[in-house]
Design goal:
about 350 residues, 4 domains, about 25% strand
Protein backbone atom coordinates (compact mmCIF):
# COMPACT_ATOMS: atom_id res chain seq x y z
CA UNK A 1 0.00 0.00 0.00
CA UNK A 2 2.82 2.36 0.81
CA UNK A 3 4.30 1.92 -2.65
CA UNK A 4 1.15 3.15 -4.42
CA UNK A 5 -0.35 5.56 -1.88
CA UNK A 6 1.42 8.55 -3.42
CA UNK A 7 -0.19 7.89 -6.79
CA UNK A 8 -3.80 7.80 -5.57
CA UNK A 9 -6.17 10.12 -7.38
CA UNK A 10 -7.20 13.37 -5.73
CA UNK A 11 -10.24 15.61 -5.90
CA UNK A 12 -9.66 19.20 -6.91
CA UNK A 13 -12.36 21.35 -5.26
CA UNK A 14 -13.05 24.32 -2.99
CA UNK A 15 -14.25 22.45 0.08
CA UNK A 16 -14.51 25.24 2.67
CA UNK A 17 -16.41 27.76 0.57
CA UNK A 18 -17.14 31.12 2.25
CA UNK A 19 -19.17 34.09 1.00
CA UNK A 20 -16.52 36.56 2.15
CA UNK A 21 -13.65 34.88 0.26
CA UNK A 22 -12.95 36.20 -3.24
CA UNK A 23 -10.71 33.34 -4.36
CA UNK A 24 -9.19 30.14 -2.98
CA UNK A 25 -6.05 28.52 -4.37
CA UNK A 26 -5.97 24.74 -4.48
CA UNK A 27 -2.32 23.85 -4.21
CA UNK A 28 -1.00 20.32 -4.03
CA UNK A 29 2.26 18.74 -5.12
CA UNK A 30 0.68 17.54 -8.34
CA UNK A 31 -2.61 16.42 -9.88
CA UNK A 32 -2.67 12.62 -10.13
CA UNK A 33 -4.05 10.32 -12.80
CA UNK A 34 -7.78 9.78 -12.35
CA UNK A 35 -8.27 13.04 -10.44
CA UNK A 36 -11.55 14.89 -10.72
CA UNK A 37 -12.47 18.58 -10.73
CA UNK A 38 -15.62 19.76 -8.92
CA UNK A 39 -16.99 23.22 -9.77
CA UNK A 40 -19.87 24.42 -7.60
CA UNK A 41 -22.45 27.14 -8.44
CA UNK A 42 -20.96 30.63 -8.24
CA UNK A 43 -17.42 29.39 -8.87
CA UNK A 44 -14.96 29.47 -11.76
CA UNK A 45 -11.93 27.19 -11.87
CA UNK A 46 -8.75 28.70 -13.31
CA UNK A 47 -5.86 26.31 -14.10
CA UNK A 48 -2.40 27.86 -13.64
CA UNK A 49 0.95 26.54 -14.81
CA UNK A 50 4.23 28.35 -14.13
CA UNK A 51 2.37 31.55 -13.26
CA UNK A 52 0.30 31.58 -16.45
CA UNK A 53 -3.39 30.87 -16.99
CA UNK A 54 -3.85 27.60 -18.87
CA UNK A 55 -7.64 27.53 -18.95
CA UNK A 56 -10.77 28.94 -17.31
CA UNK A 57 -13.74 26.66 -16.64
CA UNK A 58 -17.04 28.30 -15.74
CA UNK A 59 -19.68 25.56 -15.91
CA UNK A 60 -20.55 23.83 -12.67
CA UNK A 61 -20.14 20.09 -12.57
CA UNK A 62 -17.92 17.10 -11.79
CA UNK A 63 -15.19 16.53 -14.40
CA UNK A 64 -12.50 13.97 -15.10
CA UNK A 65 -9.38 16.10 -15.39
CA UNK A 66 -7.55 13.86 -17.84
CA UNK A 67 -10.38 13.57 -20.36
CA UNK A 68 -12.48 16.70 -19.73
CA UNK A 69 -9.96 19.34 -18.71
CA UNK A 70 -6.46 18.65 -20.01
CA UNK A 71 -7.46 18.74 -23.74
CA UNK A 72 -8.55 22.34 -23.24
CA UNK A 73 -5.40 23.59 -21.50
CA UNK A 74 -3.27 25.80 -23.71
CA UNK A 75 0.23 24.36 -23.18
CA UNK A 76 -0.73 21.16 -21.35
CA UNK A 77 -3.30 19.81 -23.79
CA UNK A 78 -0.90 17.08 -24.89
CA UNK A 79 -0.02 16.04 -21.35
CA UNK A 80 -0.20 12.32 -20.62
CA UNK A 81 -0.58 10.96 -17.09
CA UNK A 82 1.68 8.03 -16.29
CA UNK A 83 2.10 5.63 -13.37
CA UNK A 84 4.58 7.99 -11.76
CA UNK A 85 3.74 11.13 -13.68
CA UNK A 86 1.44 13.75 -12.21
CA UNK A 87 0.58 17.19 -13.57
CA UNK A 88 2.21 20.00 -11.59
CA UNK A 89 -0.47 22.67 -11.79
CA UNK A 90 -2.42 24.97 -9.49
CA UNK A 91 -6.14 25.62 -9.57
CA UNK A 92 -7.59 28.99 -8.55
CA UNK A 93 -11.25 28.88 -7.55
CA UNK A 94 -12.85 32.31 -8.04
CA UNK A 95 -16.04 33.50 -6.37
CA UNK A 96 -18.03 34.98 -9.27
CA UNK A 97 -20.76 36.80 -7.33
CA UNK A 98 -21.04 40.57 -6.90
CA UNK A 99 -19.97 41.55 -3.39
CA UNK A 100 -21.87 44.23 -1.46
CA UNK A 101 -19.80 45.95 1.23
CA UNK A 102 -20.45 48.68 3.78
CA UNK A 103 -17.95 51.50 4.20
CA UNK A 104 -17.46 54.34 6.65
CA UNK A 105 -14.84 57.04 7.17
CA UNK A 106 -12.42 55.91 9.89
CA UNK A 107 -11.69 59.50 10.87
CA UNK A 108 -13.48 62.78 10.26
CA UNK A 109 -12.75 64.38 6.88
CA UNK A 110 -11.95 68.08 7.27
CA UNK A 111 -13.54 70.09 4.48
CA UNK A 112 -11.86 73.52 3.98
CA UNK A 113 -14.03 76.47 4.99
CA UNK A 114 -13.01 80.17 5.24
CA UNK A 115 -14.70 80.59 8.64
CA UNK A 116 -13.14 77.47 10.15
CA UNK A 117 -9.29 77.49 10.23
CA UNK A 118 -9.08 73.72 10.70
CA UNK A 119 -11.88 72.96 8.27
CA UNK A 120 -15.28 71.49 9.01
CA UNK A 121 -15.10 67.80 10.03
CA UNK A 122 -17.67 65.46 8.52
CA UNK A 123 -18.20 61.72 8.64
CA UNK A 124 -19.92 59.61 6.03
CA UNK A 125 -20.93 56.02 5.37
CA UNK A 126 -22.51 53.97 2.63
CA UNK A 127 -22.06 50.87 0.50
CA UNK A 128 -20.10 49.79 -2.56
CA UNK A 129 -20.21 46.77 -4.86
CA UNK A 130 -17.44 44.95 -6.70
CA UNK A 131 -16.62 41.68 -8.48
CA UNK A 132 -13.63 39.96 -10.03
CA UNK A 133 -12.98 41.37 -13.48
CA UNK A 134 -9.58 40.22 -14.78
CA UNK A 135 -8.32 36.80 -13.69
CA UNK A 136 -4.84 37.30 -15.10
CA UNK A 137 -4.28 40.58 -13.23
CA UNK A 138 -5.78 39.12 -10.05
CA UNK A 139 -3.38 36.19 -10.28
CA UNK A 140 -0.35 38.39 -10.96
CA UNK A 141 -1.05 41.02 -8.28
CA UNK A 142 -2.77 39.08 -5.51
CA UNK A 143 -3.12 35.34 -6.05
CA UNK A 144 0.58 34.92 -6.76
CA UNK A 145 1.40 35.58 -3.11
CA UNK A 146 -1.84 34.68 -1.32
CA UNK A 147 -3.75 31.45 -0.94
CA UNK A 148 -7.03 33.30 -0.47
CA UNK A 149 -8.28 36.90 -0.53
CA UNK A 150 -11.17 38.22 1.58
CA UNK A 151 -13.68 41.05 1.21
CA UNK A 152 -12.33 42.71 4.39
CA UNK A 153 -8.99 43.18 2.66
CA UNK A 154 -10.78 44.89 -0.23
CA UNK A 155 -12.76 47.09 2.18
CA UNK A 156 -9.53 48.22 3.87
CA UNK A 157 -8.04 49.13 0.49
CA UNK A 158 -11.14 51.10 -0.53
CA UNK A 159 -11.51 52.97 2.79
CA UNK A 160 -7.86 54.03 2.65
CA UNK A 161 -8.65 55.99 -0.54
CA UNK A 162 -12.03 57.46 0.44
CA UNK A 163 -10.83 60.48 2.45
CA UNK A 164 -9.06 62.01 -0.53
CA UNK A 165 -11.85 61.08 -2.93
CA UNK A 166 -14.51 62.68 -0.73
CA UNK A 167 -12.43 65.85 -0.44
CA UNK A 168 -11.91 65.95 -4.20
CA UNK A 169 -15.54 65.45 -5.17
CA UNK A 170 -17.03 67.75 -2.53
CA UNK A 171 -14.53 70.61 -2.46
CA UNK A 172 -12.69 70.61 -5.77
CA UNK A 173 -15.86 70.03 -7.76
CA UNK A 174 -17.58 72.92 -5.96
CA UNK A 175 -20.29 70.94 -4.16
CA UNK A 176 -22.16 72.53 -1.23
CA UNK A 177 -20.69 71.00 1.89
CA UNK A 178 -23.87 71.76 3.85
CA UNK A 179 -26.07 69.98 1.33
CA UNK A 180 -24.03 66.93 0.38
CA UNK A 181 -27.06 64.63 0.41
CA UNK A 182 -28.63 66.59 -2.44
CA UNK A 183 -25.52 65.95 -4.56
CA UNK A 184 -24.91 62.42 -3.27
CA UNK A 185 -25.70 60.69 -6.58
CA UNK A 186 -23.28 62.83 -8.58
CA UNK A 187 -20.56 62.62 -5.93
CA UNK A 188 -21.00 58.84 -5.65
CA UNK A 189 -20.71 58.39 -9.41
CA UNK A 190 -17.45 60.35 -9.51
CA UNK A 191 -15.99 58.40 -6.58
CA UNK A 192 -17.02 55.08 -8.17
CA UNK A 193 -15.22 55.92 -11.41
CA UNK A 194 -12.00 56.80 -9.60
CA UNK A 195 -12.21 53.79 -7.31
CA UNK A 196 -12.72 51.53 -10.31
CA UNK A 197 -9.59 52.93 -11.99
CA UNK A 198 -7.60 51.98 -8.88
CA UNK A 199 -9.16 48.56 -8.28
CA UNK A 200 -8.71 47.32 -11.87
CA UNK A 201 -5.01 47.39 -11.07
CA UNK A 202 -5.57 44.27 -8.93
CA UNK A 203 -8.18 42.68 -11.20
CA UNK A 204 -11.38 43.90 -9.49
CA UNK A 205 -14.23 45.96 -10.95
CA UNK A 206 -16.14 48.45 -8.78
CA UNK A 207 -19.73 48.14 -10.01
CA UNK A 208 -21.44 50.58 -7.64
CA UNK A 209 -20.87 53.17 -4.91
CA UNK A 210 -23.42 54.90 -2.67
CA UNK A 211 -23.33 57.57 0.05
CA UNK A 212 -26.04 56.82 2.61
CA UNK A 213 -25.54 59.40 5.37
CA UNK A 214 -23.33 62.40 6.09
CA UNK A 215 -22.96 63.65 9.67
CA UNK A 216 -21.72 67.04 10.88
CA UNK A 217 -20.52 68.14 14.33
CA UNK A 218 -23.41 68.53 16.78
CA UNK A 219 -23.19 72.32 16.95
CA UNK A 220 -23.15 72.63 13.14
CA UNK A 221 -26.10 70.26 12.82
CA UNK A 222 -28.04 72.29 15.41
CA UNK A 223 -27.47 75.47 13.41
CA UNK A 224 -28.57 73.78 10.18
CA UNK A 225 -31.73 72.49 11.87
CA UNK A 226 -32.53 75.94 13.27
CA UNK A 227 -32.12 77.65 9.90
CA UNK A 228 -34.26 74.96 8.28
CA UNK A 229 -36.94 75.49 10.93
CA UNK A 230 -36.96 79.25 10.41
CA UNK A 231 -37.29 78.87 6.65
CA UNK A 232 -40.18 76.43 7.11
CA UNK A 233 -42.05 78.80 9.44
CA UNK A 234 -41.42 81.75 7.13
CA UNK A 235 -42.95 84.44 9.38
CA UNK A 236 -40.37 85.61 11.90
CA UNK A 237 -43.11 86.79 14.25
CA UNK A 238 -44.67 83.34 14.29
CA UNK A 239 -41.23 81.79 14.79
CA UNK A 240 -40.67 84.01 17.84
CA UNK A 241 -44.02 83.01 19.27
CA UNK A 242 -43.25 79.32 18.74
CA UNK A 243 -39.83 79.78 20.33
CA UNK A 244 -41.43 81.50 23.33
CA UNK A 245 -43.93 78.67 23.76
CA UNK A 246 -41.08 76.15 23.61
CA UNK A 247 -39.14 78.11 26.20
CA UNK A 248 -42.18 78.22 28.49
CA UNK A 249 -42.81 74.48 28.23
CA UNK A 250 -39.17 73.57 28.66
CA UNK A 251 -38.78 75.96 31.57
CA UNK A 252 -41.71 74.44 33.41
CA UNK A 253 -40.73 70.87 32.76
CA UNK A 254 -37.02 71.18 33.37
CA UNK A 255 -37.03 73.23 36.54
CA UNK A 256 -36.31 76.53 34.77
CA UNK A 257 -36.74 80.01 36.28
CA UNK A 258 -40.38 80.59 37.32
CA UNK A 259 -39.90 84.36 37.06
CA UNK A 260 -38.70 84.14 33.48
CA UNK A 261 -41.54 81.81 32.64
CA UNK A 262 -44.10 84.16 34.23
CA UNK A 263 -42.69 87.11 32.28
CA UNK A 264 -42.81 85.09 29.06
CA UNK A 265 -46.40 84.05 29.80
CA UNK A 266 -47.41 87.64 30.53
CA UNK A 267 -45.78 88.90 27.35
CA UNK A 268 -47.37 86.18 25.30
CA UNK A 269 -50.78 86.94 26.84
CA UNK A 270 -50.48 90.65 26.07
CA UNK A 271 -49.47 89.96 22.49
CA UNK A 272 -52.32 87.54 21.94
CA UNK A 273 -54.83 89.90 23.61
CA UNK A 274 -53.73 92.85 21.50
CA UNK A 275 -53.96 90.79 18.34
CA UNK A 276 -57.53 89.81 19.25
CA UNK A 277 -58.48 93.47 19.90
CA UNK A 278 -57.00 94.57 16.58
CA UNK A 279 -58.83 91.79 14.77
CA UNK A 280 -62.15 92.72 16.38
CA UNK A 281 -61.66 96.39 15.49
CA UNK A 282 -60.98 95.57 11.88
CA UNK A 283 -64.14 93.45 11.68
CA UNK A 284 -66.45 96.14 13.12
CA UNK A 285 -68.75 97.82 10.52
CA UNK A 286 -67.43 101.22 9.51
CA UNK A 287 -64.50 100.83 11.85
CA UNK A 288 -60.80 100.60 11.17
CA UNK A 289 -57.96 99.21 13.13
CA UNK A 290 -56.68 102.69 13.98
CA UNK A 291 -59.90 103.81 15.72
CA UNK A 292 -61.30 100.61 17.16
CA UNK A 293 -58.29 99.67 19.26
CA UNK A 294 -58.40 102.77 21.54
CA UNK A 295 -62.17 102.27 22.04
CA UNK A 296 -61.65 98.62 22.98
CA UNK A 297 -59.29 99.80 25.71
CA UNK A 298 -61.72 102.57 26.77
CA UNK A 299 -58.89 105.02 26.27
CA UNK A 300 -59.00 108.18 24.18
CA UNK A 301 -55.76 108.98 22.41
CA UNK A 302 -54.75 112.47 23.62
CA UNK A 303 -53.13 114.91 21.21
CA UNK A 304 -49.39 115.61 21.56
CA UNK A 305 -48.27 118.41 23.91
CA UNK A 306 -46.81 121.48 22.15
CA UNK A 307 -45.03 124.63 23.33
CA UNK A 308 -45.93 128.26 22.52
CA UNK A 309 -44.28 127.99 19.12
CA UNK A 310 -46.19 124.81 18.22
CA UNK A 311 -43.23 122.43 18.65
CA UNK A 312 -44.07 118.96 20.00
CA UNK A 313 -42.45 118.48 23.41
CA UNK A 314 -44.33 115.36 24.56
CA UNK A 315 -46.28 112.69 22.77
CA UNK A 316 -49.79 111.44 23.55
CA UNK A 317 -50.38 109.18 26.52
CA UNK A 318 -51.86 106.51 24.27
CA UNK A 319 -50.84 105.45 20.77
CA UNK A 320 -53.26 106.92 18.19
CA UNK A 321 -52.77 103.75 16.07
CA UNK A 322 -53.25 100.85 18.48
CA UNK A 323 -54.16 102.46 21.83
CA UNK A 324 -51.15 101.14 23.74
CA UNK A 325 -50.02 103.31 26.71
CA UNK A 326 -46.94 105.23 25.54
CA UNK A 327 -45.13 105.92 28.85
CA UNK A 328 -43.53 109.01 27.31
CA UNK A 329 -41.81 107.02 24.54
CA UNK A 330 -41.08 108.45 21.09
CA UNK A 331 -42.35 105.30 19.31
CA UNK A 332 -45.13 102.90 20.24
CA UNK A 333 -43.72 99.71 21.78
CA UNK A 334 -46.49 97.62 20.23
CA UNK A 335 -46.96 98.83 16.65
CA UNK A 336 -43.98 101.16 16.16
CA UNK A 337 -46.10 104.28 15.47
CA UNK A 338 -44.07 107.53 15.72
CA UNK A 339 -45.40 109.56 18.66
CA UNK A 340 -43.15 112.68 18.67
Amino acid sequence: MGLFSGQLANVVEWEEYRDDVIFYKWNNNEIKKGSRLIIRPGQDAVFLFNGRIEGVFTDEGNYDIESDIVPFLSTLKGFRFGFKTGMKAEVLFVNTKEFNMKWGTKQAVNLPHPSLPGGMPIRANGTFQFKVGDYQVLMEKIAGVKKQYTTEEVRDRVVSMLDQLLLRWIVREGKDMFNIQANAVEISKGIQEELDMEMVKIGLDVTGFQINTVSYPEEIQAMVNKVAGQSMVGDVGKYQQISMIDAMSQGGGAGGSSTAMDMASMSMGMMMGQQMVNQMAQNMPGGGGQQAAPQANNQQAAPPVTDADGNVVAGPKFCPNCGTKTEGMKFCSNCGQKLI
